[in-house]
Amino acid sequence: MEIVLATRNKNKIKEISRALKIPGLNILTMDNFRNIPEVIEDRRTLKENALKKASEVNSRTGHISLSDDSGLEVDFLKGAPGVYSARFAGEGCTYQDNNNKLLRSLDGVPQSKRGALFRTVIVIKVPGREPVVVEGRCRGKIAFKNKGSRGFGYDPIFIPSNYKKTYAEMSLSYKNRISHRGKALEKAKRVLLSLMKKLSGRSVGG
After folding, report:
1. C-alpha distances in angstroms, 55 versus 66, 107, 136?
2. Domains, the chain
3. 159 vs 169: CA distance, rounded Å
4. What burial letters (b/e) apply to 123-137, b meaning 16+ CB within 10 Å?
């Protein structure tokens, strides 16, 4: 069975591919197809963005598609940056730009008020079927400075609850076991295994 990941983000592709190592599952990316434009993430929620990405890639490729959208919701900032996490510091910003802006936004805020929730919504869209939506969450807090060199995004400043290390200080395999995306991917894996079982023997996804 083949699925297409509805992203060109190399870091996401690496994490998703590592988590979805299933015998008989062939993972493709948008780079395997010609002339697929970037999907504009202009919806108001993570779920709506993920649904849009999965539906558009499914429509353009004819394959089963898998999309995700993630957001960091900081308590002190009343849930920001949330759906705008990837462009918190403005269009075309870098991961470090976002981290720096968030740290500045929390300048002087004590540890007790630096709580945050990381969420990932994953959508799996099979041609001709209703999309399946799963979600993963991880509570934690925002560090006072960048720590670690692994991962991407807000990983250097997010410390999961009951841990002392940021995501960026953890190995990818360890991070995938406890992270918001890892939890969502575990649910997605179960969905895909069920699909493979149901569709065994049929021609699926082109």
Report:
1. 9, 40, 20
2. 2-198 (3.90.950.10)
3. 9
4. bbbbeeeebbbbbbe
Checking DSSP bridges between strand 26-29 and strand 2-5, what pairing results, if any? parallel
| Rounded distance between C-alpha atoms, residue 103 and residue 125, angstroms | 37
pLDDT tens readout for residues 189-203: 999 999 998 877 554
* Catalytic positions, written as ranges: 69
pLDDT at 205: 45
Amino acid at 108: G
Contact 139, 161 (CB under 8 A): yes
State the Cα–Cα distance between residues 206 and 7, nearest whole angstrom. Answer: 19
Residue 59, φ and ψ in degrees, nearest 5: -65, -40
